[in-house]
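Working notes for the structural subgroup meeting. M.R. asked for a predicted model of this chain before we commit to crystallization trials. I am recording the input and output together here so anyone reviewing the notebook later can reproduce the run.

Input as submitted:
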Amino acid sequence: METENPEAAVNADDEAQAVSPVVPEVSQHLLDLSHSTRTYKTLISGGHFDLSTKSVKIIDQELSTQFAQSVWSALTSDEAGGEDNAIALAKGNGAFVLVELVDALQKAGKAGDVKRVLGKKAVRGEIENAGQKGAGLLADRLAAL
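Returned structure, recorded in token form:
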């Protein structure tokens, strides 16, 4: 019967830890990540922003309205926290995404729910006073609904 070599066992553990991936805990909201924000803006707007023409090059017109409606439904779902979730997102780093969302829903004729949730004067004031990038633009878009 072989005796166990404690040093070999320690080396095996070290090797296993060296090849196993270390996954850091994510403490940021998805929209705190710039690449995530750009992805959502692209999907909601229906295409990529073209710097040369200073406009969105629409890839699929249906994509914008369908995705925007799905995002709004998800943001305001009970599982996500309902309307309070949409308000918190508007006051946080999601302002630019919500600007695109408001525009897309307005084009689809579905801006009524957005106006009911985010268009109240008190809510718009909270959004504007949150001090986040894009908050003023979002407040202006909401006021125009």
